[in-house]
Write a structure and sequence with these properties.
Elements (H helix, E strand, L loop, with lengths): L5 H13 L3 H10 L6 H14 L2 H14 L5 H13 L3 H9 L6 H13 L3 H11 L5 H13 L3 H11 L5 H13 L3 H9 L6 H13 L3 H13 L6 H13 L3 H12 L7 H13 L3 H10 L5 H13 L3 H14 L5 H20 L1
Helix pairs in contact: 1-2, 1-3, 2-3, 3-4, 3-5, 4-5, 5-6, 5-7, 6-7, 7-8, 7-9, 8-9, 9-10, 9-11, 10-11, 11-12, 11-13, 12-13, 13-14, 13-15, 14-15, 15-16, 15-17, 16-17, 17-18, 17-19, 18-19, 19-20, 19-21, 20-21
């Protein structure tokens, strides 16, 4: 493409940001050879948020000022949100104050800036006294912030007494709040009130049961989710493999591995690492090794995982063989890998002396 217009630039900048390549996204933003538009600035601010970079946010802000796009409601609101994600609460408020007619999204963006940066008293008073028409998003934002800071009772008060209505996020937030309060039975009650629970809601429920040690129930929920026609995603597979690994349910885990193999996550490094860990917990070294070798892009976590499997199962010779393979694969070995191998060496030496 020889001549790029603003739309083309915006599309490629947004694509890099959405894929998590935020540095590259911003590099493209500064290379743009035409006048940036609304979509261009929204994409660049998305990249700033992804990096949590206050300095980058300020630079994009300056460019928006220079080009006049700061007066656009969508750009200004996105800047409020981006400053909040970059811990620039004062800058977030300053940009908001320049918006002549803030939208509901603008008000909620500043509320989120206060809430996610720990200014809970300011966020609460802003919601109660300043926002002209708070909506479900407003209350969800404050409730989630209370949960994040361990103030579960205040979160539940908002959810049960002050919410004008509930959406799926409200249900998920309520499940997490009840779980933190130790009310697992109420978690299930909240879930069952949802007419059509999303994958995120199923995942929230499954993860709560895993963390509560109810691993068999978590596995049943995963199966129920499938029966009800909700498609599992990456988080679903990670959660159920964790649950089945904890209770060493090898045969059930093999079935989940089979489902994963036929899903779009079969080449995902994180899910493959979870499979290796599952087989290791079950003492199935062959399954762990096959899963590890099938991982097309092995990272440090992959190598540490398979080394841990062999070390924890007492196969010290294979542990050292994998260590040397890893040494050839990586330029610099992580400290935790060296510690693990040294521990294996000590345990192996002690075992050989006892025999």
């Amino acid at each position: 493409m020889e001549q790029r217009d603003t739309s083309s630039w915006s599309s490629i900048i947004a694509a890099y940001a959405q894929l998590g390549h935020c540095e590259e996204s911003l590099a493209l933003f500064w290379q743009i050879d035409t006048t940036p538009g609304r979509a261009t600035f929204l994409a660049a601010l998305d990249a700033c948020s992804g990096l949590s970079s206050l300095s980058h946010c300020r630079q994009v802000h300056a460019a928006a000022d220079h080009t006049g796009w700061i007066s656009d409601l969508a750009v200004a609101t996105s800047l409020v949100a981006s400053y909040g994600k970059c811990k620039g609460v004062e800058e977030s408020k300053a940009v908001f104050d320049r918006i002549e007619h803030p939208s509901t999204v603008s008000w909620n963006s500043l509320l989120r800036s206060y809430a996610q940066n720990g200014h809970l008293a300011k966020a609460a008073s802003f919601l109660e006294e300043t926002i002209p028409s708070p909506d479900v998003v407003s209350f969800n934002t404050l409730a989630a912030a209370y949960i994040q800071h361990g103030r579960v009772n205040e979160a539940l008060e908002i959810l049960t007494k002050r919410m004008p209505c509930w959406d799926s996020f409200s249900h998920n937030t309520a499940m997490v709040a009840h779980a933190q309060a130790g009310h697992i039975h109420k978690v299930k009650e909240v879930f069952e009130k949802m007419e059509e629970p999303s994958t995120v809601s199923w995942n929230t429920l499954i993860c709560i049961f895993v963390q509560a040690g109810e691993c068999e129930s978590a596995a049943r929920l995963f199966h129920q989710m499938d029966l009800e026609g909700t498609q599992a995603d990456k988080v679903s597979f990670l959660a159920v493999l964790d649950a089945l690994g904890r209770i060493t349910a090898l045969q059930k885990g093999k079935l989940v591995h089979g489902e994963l193999h036929h899903s779009r996550f079969q080449s995902d490094v994180m899910t493959n690492n979870a499979v290796v860990n599952f087989y290791g917990r079950c003492g199935c070294l062959r399954g762990a090794k096959v899963a590890f070798e099938a991982t097309t892009r092995q990272d440090v976590v992959s190598w540490n995982g398979i080394i841990s499997v062999y070390a924890n199962n007492g196969h010290f010779e294979e542990t050292f063989d994998l260590f040397w393979r890893m040494k050839d694969f990586l330029f610099k070995l992580p400290k935790n890998t060296l510690t693990l191998v040294m521990q294996s060496w000590v345990v192996g030496r002690m075992g050989s002396r006892q025999h």
